[in-house]
Amino acid sequence: MTMDAAASKEILRHVFGDSSDSEDLEPGDGSDSDPTRFWEPIKQIKGLWLCRDFLSPQHQSSLLSTIQNEGWFTQASHNQAMRFGDLPAWADELSCSIRKVALANDYVFYPVVLGSNDGVKENASPFPSDLLCREPLFDQLILNSYQSGEGICAHVDLMRFEDGIAILSLESSCVMHFSQVEGTSRENDPPVAKIPVYLTPGSLIFMSGEARYHWKHEINRTPGIQKWEGEELTQTRRISITLRKLCQVE
Fold it and tell me: Residues 177-193: pLDDT tens digits?
């Protein structure tokens, strides 16, 4: 017998608590008292969700200071760092906040393609229940520092990692493009052009299912490429924090 989504979420709330159970949440880090922070599905890509204001400007500044003080990027040539297993305290806090935001948002609003209403209230969650209840939620961290003009080529994350990947974007805004992996489209579906997703400082995306396995993601920051709504974006240093879970070795 399959448990419905509402019952599953209620069990998760009982085990992990709700965002209102925590007194140390800062504004913009997942508190459900702020109605401007919610998950938005990227409707063209199943399993891709965006939380535009996951971290407040104050929390972003605090996190960046912590990263700097811990010496993750002590030299200009050091632009990537990884951790496996025990993550730093701030990464554990991010994981906790991600779970709390997912539990706090029972509903999302988004436009419907068919129908007369401008939007509908749909019982949905960015996290499938089996991912949300795993412990730890994430056990691998990759921290990247991109200078102006630097990006990352189109790729699907390695299969050594489980489903469910979170990416936090800090400092410079950017456009991340998604392109479908060849041979993964549904039968009779027309080819899909690259899907742009605008990432502002403090925004977080979460990929699961098709978004994680059937779509490549990339950031091309070549001058003239980074545009949103016809305007070229001003590029500065960008920090990205990716949280993943290693597959269990049998």
Answer: 999 998 887 776 776 78
Bridge partners (DSSP) listed for residue 163: none
Report the phi/psi class of residue 85: left, alpha or beta, with left for phi > 0 and alpha for psi in -120 to 50.
Answer: left
Burial string for 91-124 (b: 16+ CB within 10 Å, else e) reads bebbbbbbbbbbbbbeebeeeeeeeeeeeeeeee
Q: What are the residues facing 145 on neighbouring strands?
A: 239
CA–CA gap between residue 160 and residue 157 (Å, rounded): 8
Is pTM beyond 0.85? Reply is: no
* Candidate CATH numbers 3.90.1640.10, 3.90.220.20, 2.60.120.590, 2.10.109.10; the one for domain 3-244: 2.60.120.590
Q: How many residues does the chain have?
A: 250
| pLDDT tens string 188-239 | 677 678 999 999 999 999 999 999 999 999 999 998 899 999 999 999 999 9
